[in-house]
Write a structure and sequence with these properties.
Length: 403
């Protein structure tokens, strides 16, 4: 297969044709600063923002005035937690143990020492058990944050039930839905969400732009000073080309999501079965059914994930190992080979965590691409097993015991 097979959608989806066209058309237009309402160029720019905000809001059934553009999911997560907690003097925060680093690092920041932090465990499939939340939530709890779907293991959480428990106790509920928006149906009103983070780049829009849904009843303080853009929540001139592409991607994905999501689920199942039937020593991660469409993740007992990635890349296949946001040591060119907190949470032995692989497909992937990966992966694994001293020891022990 000559072309690149791109199976790393949860890190960044390839730019959708609709988004690419919308950005190109915008760049050929003569517009000014959206905040310059007094002249036609500024008014034209503001019209672009309004149109995109309407498209983004429509994808998740939010009010237009409940969508705030940011630089991406990390900023949205920071705005949600810091912006909300800045008005609280104390209390409890509950987060799941498989949150993204943009949540975990905030919680571990000494600036939040005035809060008690509780961790919500997940089961072996990476799912939060709502009854466990009911056990630890108290009158002191001010905020619960649970990721909607793990990019690493694909598990989709029972968000509606979690929201019901939070609402019952009068607790604000935030969810990081970066990996989920555009790939599973999300109705923020029907789910009962108070705040929700998502990003342009994971659903086919440009990088460098994201959004935070904030229910109109929730009060936040901005992270920055310096202007009244985004209704005062996010000062600074908007990333207009990014916002235009974001809106176009949402508008394109909305009418096709139901049909294409079902097709993507089938492609994911086909890939799962192909790996399961043709490769030994594989353990899949995440729930088999309650997972993102087109998402397959696993670890191998004797082969490192990075070695698999390199060999797949040489065959034209792009995938992921662990989290794209934690693959490099801070301030260094070296790779961070520490065990993933998500994999350890679901019971993967620490010594095997470096062997994790994640395939995540989007709507533009094909069955031929899935078949290609199924065809080449066993040979790659066998070649790497032959180079593994651990696998060699395993085979010697197996022969010794006549297995």
């Amino acid at each position: 297969m000559a072309k690149m097979v791109y199976f790393d959608r949860v890190a960044t989806a390839l730019l959708a044709p609709e988004a690419k066209k919308a950005v190109a058309n915008f760049m050929n237009d003569s517009v000014g600063n959206p905040s310059a309402h007094i002249h036609s160029a500024g008014i034209a720019a503001g019209t672009y923002v309004d149109k995109s905000r309407t498209s983004v809001a429509g994808l998740i059934n939010a009010g237009v005035n409940e969508i705030f553009f940011t630089s991406g999911a990390t900023e949205s997560n920071n705005l949600a937690l810091k912006g909300f907690l800045s008005e609280k003097n104390s209390g409890e925060i509950i987060i799941s143990e498989i949150e993204h680093y943009s949540i975990l690092d905030q919680i571990n920041n000494p600036a939040l020492d005035r809060f008690d932090i509780k961790t919500l465990k997940v089961d072996r499939n990476g799912l939060v058990i709502p009854e466990k939340l009911e056990e630890i939530i108290t009158d002191e709890t001010v905020l619960v944050s649970v990721i909607m779907a793990s990019p690493e293991i694909g598990a989709v959480q029972p968000i509606k039930e979690i929201a019901r428990i939070c609402r019952k106790h009068g607790v604000t509920f935030h969810s990081d839905a970066t990996s989920a928006v555009g790939y599973i149906p999300i109705d923020v009103k029907g789910l009962g969400l108070d705040m929700m983070t998502f990003s342009s780049q994971t659903l086919g829009g440009p990088m460098g732009v994201g959004a935070l849904y904030v229910n109109s009843t929730i009060s936040l303080n901005p992270l920055f000073d310096g202007g009244n853009q985004e209704m005062g929540f996010r000062p600074g001139t908007e990333n207009l080309p990014g916002i235009v592409g974001f809106g176009a991607a949402c508008q394109a994905i909305s009418p096709m999501m139901a049909d294409k999501s079902s097709r993507l689920t089938e492609l994911g199942r086909k890939l799962w079965r192909g790996i399961e039937e043709n490769i030994e020593h594989i353990e899949f991660t995440g729930h088999r059914e309650s997972r993102l469409p087109g998402h397959v993740s696993f670890w191998h007992r004797f082969v490192e994930g990075e070695s698999l990635l390199l060999h797949l890349n040489m065959k034209g296949v792009i995938a992921a190992s662990g989290s794209a946001c934690s693959s490099n040591l801070k301030g260094s060119d070296e790779h961070d080979l520490r065990a993933s907190h998500v994999l350890t949470a679901v019971g993967v032995p620490e010594e095997y965590c470096s062997g994790s692989i994640t395939f995540s497909l989007d709507y533009y992937n094909s069955e031929d691409e899935v078949n290609y990966v199924i065809d080449i992966l066993p040979e790659i694994v066998h070649r790497l097993e032959a180079m593994s001293p651990v696998y060699e020891d395993y085979m010697k022990q197996r022969e010794k015991h006549g297995r």
